Amino acid sequence: MSSEVPKFKVMVTNHKVHPEALDILREDCELIFCDKFPSDRQEILEKCRGVDGMFWTTPHLLDSEVLDAAGPQLKCAATISAGLDTIDANEMKRRGIELGYAPYISNTAVAEHAIGLMIAAGKRFHQGRLKIKSSEWKNWHIRWMLGQEIRNSTVGLVGFGGIGQVIAELLQGFGVKQILYTCRHKNPRGDELNAKYVQFDQLLCESDFIVVACPLTSDTENMFSDAEFQKMKPNCVLVNISRGPIIDHDALYNALKLGQIFAAGLDVTVPEPLPANHPLLNLPNCVITPHLAASTYPTRETVAKVTAHNIMRSLRGMEMLSPAFTLPQKERITNSGTE
User: Fold this and answer.
1) Residues 29 and 50 both lie in one domain
2) For residue 281, what is the DSSP state?
3) Peptide bond between residue 271 and the one before it cis (omega within 30 degrees of 0)
4) What angle do the packed helices 162-171 and 107-122 form, to 10 degrees?
5) Do 113 and 86 belong together in one domain?
6) Active-site residue, from 60, 113, 291, 309
7) D-isomer specific 2-hydroxyacid dehydrogenase NAD-binding domain: which residues (predicted)?
8) pTM for the complete prediction?
9) Residues 6 or more apart whose Cβ sits within 8 Å of residue 36
10) 78-113 residues labelled b (16+ CB within 10 A) or e (exposed)
11) Same domain, residue pair 56 and 186
């Protein structure tokens, strides 16, 4: 840490941020930590006053209320997330405040988790554990607990951005029959990965595994509901590593309960955390993880460092490594809620 008086003040919303990322900030910054864990919005509103930057690691919304509380000197904020669900990016851009985020870094970790959920749900991992717990281990029966294989299957990817493409790359080693994908436009990377661009309905009808890897938008919210489940194959395994609201959970419950689809693997739900009494948790053919896809040691460390560098570069007048948007130089002046 520099012996000089810190030039900037940065609020860190989680005191458990990776130490090496904090060391990057300490070179020129006084760090102000939110002590409560999990984070408390009132504490954030109090501790953000007068800061130059914010290291955002909380599900609380970074909105006009927080920006007003911080004050007109606020220059930037950066989130550890690859998405901007918890950030009012339009308001930040309107005020001329720079915003950094962490896209692409978690792609491999999330793609690996998707493959893991395909296997766990397709091979009945959760149901098998329940059988052991209830003393119903009956593998002497030759047709007991039969599952689905990725080998020779058709895998459908809903969304073919960074994560979808890494999933397609990983699937090359599984001997799949074919990979289908659907998104707004055909992607040149599809041909390189032997993935075929199709319409959503065709993907629903033909896929043995479907992985949701698209962003949550007004168009994709409740993209999977009763009508979609009726088009899917009864052996289909549905995996969601994107955002919970893309799947209508009531419709999913009915589809799993009635055997319209074989199984589901979810890393994201509505709400989060999922209540302990939620009906999906009572289904043997539904594997649920608590939004862990990007939670690996290498990914978390890299994301934290990138977030720290985004803040430091902004405060030093340099371009962020991964800006959420670009501001004309003249707009980087003040944080004001009024014109």
Assistant:
1) yes
2) G
3) yes
4) 50
5) no
6) 291
7) 115-293
8) 0.89
9) 43
10) bbbbbebeebbbebbbebbbbbbbbeebbbbbbbbb
11) no
Number of domains in the chain: 2
Same domain? For 260 and 315 the reply is no
Statement to judge: residues 321 and 209 lie in one domain:
no
In a domain? residue 232: yes
d(CA 85, CA 81): 9
At 116, which amino acid appears?
G
Domain that holds residue 186: 107-288
Q: Are 103 and 200 in contact (CB under 8 A)?
A: no
The verdict on whether 113 is a catalytic residue reads no
Q: What are phi and psi of 189, to 5 degrees?
A: -65, -20
| pLDDT tens-digit map of 181-196 | 999 999 999 999 999 9
Task: Report the alpha-carbon distance of residue 46 to residue 330 in Å, rounded.
Answer: 29
328 neighbors 316 (Cβ within 8 angstroms)? no
What are the strands of the beta sheet with 178-182, ordered from one edge? 195-197, 178-182, 154-158, 209-212, 237-240, 263-266, 286-288
| 282 belongs to a structural domain | yes
